[in-house]
Amino acid sequence: MTGVIMQAYPPGCGPSTPAELVALLRRPLGELLPGTRKASALDAVVLLDPEDALSDDAMEIVCDYTQALFDSEDPATAWLPRWAWQRAEQIEQELFQTLIQAGDAAVYTASRRFLIEHPAGDTRELAEARGRSGARQVARYIEIPPDRVFRFAPGADGQCWWSCPVCKWPMQVRGRRVECTYRPHTARFLVGDTGVGSLTAPSLVKVSATRLRLLESHPVVSAVCVDPAVWRFVVVPGVPELDLERLLHSHIPEVGVALYPIKDTFDLLVTAPDGRTWSVDVKDHADPQRVIDDPPSADHVVVPTYRKGQLHQLKRALSGKSVWTIRQFLNEVSDHVARGGSA
């Protein structure tokens, strides 16, 4: 990589040794490449965190840009998590190919919804909930990863985990810090002081400014969660999709909302009482260029509120499509219904 970076710089400029390159990896990404290129939304990203591990922001970028560059024999896979060298399209195909071929849109929707709403939990409770929902088991559940477990007492009963209030997947435990590793969820907590040797699972204290519900701990015994790749490529993007569906139902009950109506052609089909329809794709990417390079099929592109800074670029690049935040789209549909369907 030192050679690659040196080639991008004029002779005598930039890092000339691996040690110099490593030092730059601890600084904002915009300082790594020559200043002749145009500014990017990713310039402020720092690749290595204070512990010299790949930062959460860098992981988010990896998810957007990896194109299966590595195979299972590549040594790079020893330091990158498995989901970081798999394409989202591969994961979705593995999960849903059987359902797509079955031709049953209702089962497809139920199964996808179940993964998003139940990415972790007690094994028996998950099985019972899946049976009630009509979903099929399309993903493998694994034991709670060790870096998501907090040990407060000896033995198996002295271990617990906490789900992210936003995506419901186990949060990472770093000492007394407990955080969701998808940074836009802004779920950051500290483990409360319960005393040495306590047999009671500790509580969490919220340290992020975002309004989040209080969390209860879950025992590790009998608990499972979906694979990290499924979490990142199915659960995380599915959260704003279900949020939009829920908000439409609660704020504008007059409209019909179909989730994944034609399997995975687009995310939602919204229908007003007068017959007006909106086909919607919800997009949550660190860099809007990913959306631009692979334009959605829906007429309306909706981004979460924390991506509102992408609106201008997406509107300029996606000609013929309407681009909104979730709140803006809700207002558009609500205004249309309030006008009685008039233009």
TrEMBL record:
<dbReference type="InterPro" id="IPR040828">
    <property type="entry name" value="pPIWI_RE_REase"/>
</dbReference>
<feature type="domain" description="REase associating with pPIWI RE">
    <location>
        <begin position="238"/>
        <end position="339"/>
    </location>
</feature>
<protein>
    <recommendedName>
        <fullName>REase associating with pPIWI RE domain-containing protein</fullName>
    </recommendedName>
</protein>
<dbReference type="Pfam" id="PF18156">
    <property type="entry name" value="pPIWI_RE_Y"/>
</dbReference>
<dbReference type="Pfam" id="PF18154">
    <property type="entry name" value="pPIWI_RE_REase"/>
</dbReference>
<feature type="domain" description="pPIWI-RE three-gene island">
    <location>
        <begin position="1"/>
        <end position="121"/>
    </location>
</feature>
<dbReference type="InterPro" id="IPR041191">
    <property type="entry name" value="pPIWI_RE_Y"/>
</dbReference>
